[in-house]
Design goal:
By secondary structure, the protein is an alpha/beta fold. The protein is 58% helix and 14% strand. The protein has ten helices and seven strands. The chain is globular and about 55 Å long.
Length: 212
């Protein structure tokens, strides 16, 4: 992995659910920066990889899948209320996400050699220890009420469920200690776009200086 990563800088983007990290990543993607979404790929792999499905059913029950598709709400209710269960799920899924990421970044380097950096977006960047591979880390934070409003619109779940899940995610304080950039997201779309422009220019400058 290290030999691949050295050829291109890896930027980790993380934050609690509903913080705006995916939208921030989207604005960077529009600039031509390749973005790997660990959360999205993880869900795809949970549906595609047989051994992942077998282990999830083994430890979390048959209701973890509905019509051969991951039952997101059922599984989320279990793992986001129990840190041990969340760690177990990460143990099952993360090795496959890690392998998938290696394949992705290898192909990106071959096709798009002009890029100075790529993005790895992950809600569990620190929990999975993926942050150790990153050259720079960006943490997106947002007021709790704003996150709750966004998640309700996006996932159609109630406030109590959201609060339970947020409680069991690593605190912003711990994220910020290990981050190079911290973006406090209040106004959401406009502000994140502006910050994406600023961070992109700053990263290009830093990486260019490092490579000289």
């Amino acid at each position: 992995m290290s030999s691949i990563i050295k050829k291109i800088k890896l930027i980790g983007i993380t934050g609690k659910m509903g913080s705006g990290k995916s939208l921030f990543s989207f604005f960077l993607k529009k600039k031509g920066i390749p973005v790997y979404s660990s959360d999205q790929r993880g869900k795809i792999l949970m549906n595609q990889v047989k051994i992942i499905k077998q282990n999830i059913i083994k430890y979390f029950g048959k209701d973890s899948y509905r019509k051969n598709k991951i039952n997101k709400n059922y599984l989320s209710e279990i793992v986001f209320k129990n840190p041990i269960a969340l760690k177990l799920l990460c143990t099952i899924v993360h090795p496959w996400v890690s392998l998938d990421f290696k394949q992705w970044i290898s192909s990106i380097i071959k096709i798009q050699k002009k890029n100075l950096y790529v993005i790895k977006e992950s809600a569990i960047l620190f929990e999975s220890n993926s942050y150790k591979e990153c050259d720079f880390i960006i943490t997106i934070t947002s007021p709790k009420k704003n996150m709750i409003q966004r998640i309700i619109k996006r996932d159609n779940i109630n406030e109590n469920q959201i609060i339970d899940r947020l409680k069991n995610q690593i605190s912003n304080k711990k994220r910020e200690k290990k981050s190079n950039f911290i973006i406090k997201n209040y106004s959401y779309t406009y502000y994140l776009k502006k910050e994406a422009d600023r961070i992109h220019k700053l990263l290009e400058k830093l990486i260019t200086q490092t490579n000289q």
